[in-house]
Design goal:
The structure is a single chain. With 306 residues, the protein is α/β, with parallel strands linked by helices. The protein has a single domain, classed as Spore Coat Polysaccharide Biosynthesis Protein SpsA, Chain A. The chain is built from 12 helices and 13 strands. A 9-stranded mixed sheet has the order 5-4-1-6-11-8-12-10-9, with helices on both faces. Strands 2-3 form a two-stranded antiparallel ribbon.
């Protein structure tokens, strides 16, 4: 199946960033001067997926406004002759064909994916979680699309994490013999467990927020009972798919990601992402790197709470 569509679940309340997210969606938090959600949409487009469905909820109108035309703003910038800012404003509007559907009840990631069924139809599609930003120099999603088109079934992104942190993630078990026959960093997944206890984790390969899914996932999600937290877990549906025959859309492979990932759902990691990406920009990097060199000793020696 050729893949054209991406689904971005964006109905979460962003409570970890309160009060900043009291009146503004967490997906609109700026990473330097670009909303986090735009990085995710750009990643989908770079992988050839220009049909993007955002699964939203109450208080998410700003997402629609960001990717819509702002005629008054454009007219004002054009009148001032500010072509640089005008191009940036128009760029997000022309980036992709962005559609929206509301999730309604917050029943978990699996339910958010199921809400996309009518839009996706019987095609393979990608799911990108907005809290995970993948550096554009590391084409993870494009690799996953290629693996799915070649091997079929569904594909998940995996990342090695310290063993003591596996309880924070979904975790994969592997078919070692089948994996040996595949190329580097592509593995055959036999099972997935949502946030296992450290002693029960089958590996230290954690699922991160990128998926390329066979449409059979919709049939599985419709009969998947709520799991941890009383929510319909996508991990549980993938566990079922892993045990299904290939002719029915079953089978799960993993791509082990070793590139640059920024977790913007965590406050500390969000700050690190802003600093790192700003340091790498031509317009901000030189001055910011110099400022950090001049101030790092003072900042690192400051007592907590000062």
């Amino acid at each position: 199946m050729s893949i054209h569509k991406a689904v971005i679940p964006a109905a979460g309340q962003g409570t970890r960033f309160l009060p900043a997210t009291k009146a503004s969606p967490k997906e609109m938090l700026p990473v330097v001067d670009v909303p986090a959600i735009e990085y995710v949409v750009r990643e989908a487009v770079a992988a050839g997926l220009e049909d993007v469905l955002m699964v939203t909820g109450r208080g998410k109108r700003a997402l629609e406004d960001h990717f819509d035309r702002n005629v008054e703003l454009e007219a004002g910038l054009e009148a001032k002759g500010d072509d640089s800012k005008l191009a940036k404003v128009r760029d997000s509007t022309d980036l992709a064909q962005v559609h929206y559907v509301r999730q309604g009840d917050p029943k978990g990631l699996g339910h958010a994916v199921l809400v996309a069924k009518a839009h996706v139809g019987r095609e393979a599609f990608a799911v990108l979680l907005g809290d995970d930003l993948i550096d554009p120099r590391d084409p993870l999603l494009q690799t996953m699309v290629e693996v799915q088109e070649r091997l079929g079934g569904s594909v998940v992104a995996l990342m090695e994490v310290p063993r003591e942190q596996v309880y924070l993630y979904g975790c994969a078990s592997l078919d070692e013999a089948a994996t040996d026959a595949l190329e580097d960093d592509v593995v055959k997944v036999t099972g997935l467990v949502e946030k296992p206890a450290v002693e029960d984790a089958p590996s230290n390969l954690a699922i991160i927020g990128r998926y390329v899914l066979h449409p059979a996932v919709f049939d599985v999600l419709e009969r998947t009972e709520p799991g941890k937290g009383g929510e319909i877990q996508l991990t549980d549906a993938l566990q079922t798919l892993a045990g299904m025959p290939a002719e029915d859309g079953g089978g799960v492979h993993g791509v082990v990601f070793r590139g640059r990932r920024y977790d913007t759902g965590d406050k500390l990691d969000y700050i690190k992402a802003v600093v790192r990406l700003a340091c790498e920009r031509e317009d901000l990097g030189p001055d910011l790197r110099e400022w950090l060199r001049d101030n790092v000793d003072e900042l690192t020696s400051a007592p907590s709470g000062s």
